[in-house]
Amino acid sequence: MGQQQLILLVLATVIVGLATVVGIRAFSENSAKSNADALMQDAVRMASDIQAWVQKPAPFGGAGDGEDWTAATLADIGYPLTSGNYENLNGTFTLSSGLITGTHDADGDGTVDQEVQVRVCGLRDTDIVGAIMQVGAQSSGATAPACAAATP
Question: Which terminus, N or C, of the chain has the lesser number of Cβ atoms within 10 Å?
Answer without folding.
Answer: C
